[in-house]
Structure formats: structure tokens, C-alpha cells
Amino acid sequence: MQTVLWFLVAIGLLIAVHEWGHYRMAVACGVPVLRFSIGFGRPLLRWRNRAGTEFVVAALPLGGYVRMLDGREGPVPPEQRHLAFDAQPLRKRAAIVAAGPLANLGLAVLLYAWVAWWGEPQAEPVLGSPAPGSVAEQAGLRAGERVAAVRFDDEDAAVPVRSFDELRWQLTQAALQRRDVTLLLGPAPELATRSVPLPLAQLQARDVDAELVQRIGLVVPWSAPVVGEVLPDGAAAAAGVREGDRVLAVDDRPVEDAAQLRAWIRAAADAQGHTRTQRWRIERAGRTLELEVTPRPERLGDAWVGRVGAMIGAPPALIVVADEPLDALARGVRRTWEVSALSLQMLGRMVIGEASLRNLSGPLTIADYAGKSAALGWVAFVTFLALVSTSLGVLNLLPLPVLDGGHLMYYLWEAVVGRPPSPAWMARLQRAGMVVLAALMSLAIVNDLTRLLG
């Protein structure tokens, strides 16, 4: 129920902002707006303003519309003909249509800026153990090293890194853009003790998913190999492991961090589902003890992994990342631009077959993440809203006939040839656009169900 509630809050707000963009631009251009509707179907609430616009909140909240005075949709009194939408010059019609997506992009800028100004706790950019066989491991990166900056190899200036999230964002972008980078390690960019090149261009990244992060290798920030909650019926409890124990070594191999310890526990199971006993050297209340721990096998997909029935790893060190107001606004603009460019890049790759269509998400995934982000707090939910608002703005600017971008495509044709497309062509393009959009929505819902149902 909470998931549905937060989904309705999110989608209702974003649709309202989108339609508000159309509405405000129409009013600014002198075009009368007959109805401003959030949702479709039976009206739940309705009222009118002094200008005569009817505002409606309808039963089905998955969309909205602004109905303007338009000779193509009904009779227009002769004295108002010059005010109708279809009687406006090209520049005004284009501005009214573009205002909706631009309102979503503008909202994203403000939301990202608010998060950057308010600040949020993020993990410090201290590396956990690189994933085995990953680019990071092959480059020689080690657990506990701090990343001060990232330098793209085709640029001179380095980008300072303040948190582990910023580091992963920069590396993901580099991999998708097929660009090599160099990590500057140290307490600050000007105090870097060494630099490590990462050849990310070789990854031939297709999807933004867990597999890409795993191949890069910097999956989680550093956390101490400390045991958290121990389940009473788990393998750790049976071996005498207690909450608060710090694992120093496994089978005489020093443990560098919690990520490495978790990897060794999982690797204790073989392909047949048998596990081997591990010898743990732990520190407890200033004393060093040795315990024999036998992880229990658990089926995970097509493979067996070891489990000990305990939380492994202390929370990573956190830092509050916040900007001054003007810097926050600049960061909001930059992040909206980056997310928009990334979205278009992925859509383009899906069209030409270089990226998987699994990247498409629909309303079920949006609803799922709305609930999850709201459970994490206001900052996470606002960041989620900014991401979806950016996606909604970019989607509506695509040149599909049923979307705002399709209408802008018609206006571009009109600007070039001096006349609008013929009604027959408009009808054909609208039908084709509906087919494409229906196919995309069907695929997105199938992807949603696949994710949610495993």
C-alpha cells in the first residue's frame, strides 16, 4: 500500500508539472485553456479559475492533458478565432508544445540542486576489495585506498571525487562512453600519492546494470570486516562467532575488508553444493581467537554459494556532501544534462542493437523504486523524483508522433517547407506512433514483471 501511495504522489506531481508547463506557456501566448486535467476518466475534483479554465483531478492518474481553444477540436466563436491554438504563429505553437518537457527538465534541475544544497550522507571514496578478475583488480587497486579525483584520459583537468557514489557515477559514464580514465589516489587531488589508469574503453559496455559495475570492479566502499547481527541458527552462531567480532584472517590469509570476507565465504561452496570448513582468526575484546566456521550451501541462480547466517561488515565511513546555493544549482544543471545525455545514449544503442532492451522500465519498476526510495528518506525520494522527471522530459522530446517531440517534428517540417504535413500523413504518422509507443510500453511492462518476479 505504501508503494502505491508513493507512486501516485510521484507520478501525480511529475504529470502536474508537465501539464503546468503547457498551461503556463499557453496563457503567456494568449491562448485560452479550456481544461487542465491530471488523470483520465471520471473527475474526482473540479473547479474553475477567473479565466474560465476548468481544473480536474480524474480517477486514473496515469497521464494528463491541457485542452486549449483549437479549431481542429471543435467550433471556435469568430470573435475568438485569432486566439485559438491552431491560429497561432509557428513559434508560439512550438513554445507551448515544448514547455511541458522543459518543465520536467527544469524540475529535475531544481530537485538535484536542492539535494546538492541540503546535503546527504554518502560513503567516503575509500575502495573496498576489487571484484576478482575485474578491471580494477588487474590495475592493481587495493582495499583501503582513497580516490581523490578521476581524470578522463582525453582531458587535462581532473574531476574531484567527494564520495563513493560520485566515483561510481564517473566510472559508469566513462565505461558507457568507452573512455579510459586515471584514478588519482590520496587525501586530495593536489596530494595524490599515485595514479592508476583504468582501461574502461575495453569493456564494450552495453547495459547499466550490476554486471557492468562488477566488471569495473569497484562495487562497494571499504568497510571493516566486523561481524554484525548473528542469526541463532546459522553457521556463524554454531561456530561460536559473536556480534562485534573482527575477522583478522581466514585460513591464514589476512582479511583486508568486509567485501573480501564476504567473497571468501561465498567461495566456500563448490559446484556440487559442498562446503569446506574455514579457519577464522578473530579479535574479540582485545583477545585473538581461532574458530572453525563451516559455511552452509545455498542455491543462488545456477550456482551454489556459502552462507554463515550473519551480517558481515561495519557501516562505511560517511561524509555529508553539500554545496553552496550557486554551486548546487550548477550541479543540478550538470546532473540533469548528464542523465539526459545518458538516457539518449542508451536509447540510441537500444535502437541499433548495441544495448539490451532490458534497460526499458515501466510503471511497475517506477512504483517499486518510489516505495523503496521513500522508505530511505526524503533525500532519496527527491533524487528519485529528479531522475524520473528527467526521463519524462527526455521521453516526451523524442520524435514520436504521439509525443510532444512528434509535434515539434511536424513544426520543423512546416518551418522548412512552409506548410504543415497533410491531414492524411498526420493520421498515418499518429497511427504508427501509437503502435510504436504501445510496443515500447508492452516491452517495458514485461521487463518490469521479469525484474519483480525474478
Keywords for this entry:
454 residues, alpha+beta, Pdz3 Domain, four-stranded antiparallel beta sheet, 16 strands, 44% helix, elongated, EC 3.4.24.-
What do these coordinates show?
Its EC number is 3.4.24.-. It is found in: Membrane. It is a multi-pass membrane protein. Keywords: Hydrolase, Membrane, Metal-binding, Metalloprotease, Protease, Transmembrane, Transmembrane helix, Zinc. GO terms for molecular function: metal ion binding; metalloendopeptidase activity. The chain is of the alpha+beta class. It has 3 domains: 161 residues, no CATH class; 101 residues, PDZ domain (Pdz3 Domain, Roll), CATH 2.30.42.10; 89 residues, Pdz3 Domain (Roll), CATH 2.30.42.10. 44% of the residues lie in helices and 21% in strands. It contains 12 helices and 16 strands. The chain has a 4-stranded antiparallel β-sheet. A 4-stranded antiparallel β-sheet has the order 10-9-11-12. β4 and β5 form a beta hairpin. α8 crosses α10. The longest helix has 31 residues. The radius of gyration is 27 Å and the shape is elongated. It starts with a helix and ends with a helix.
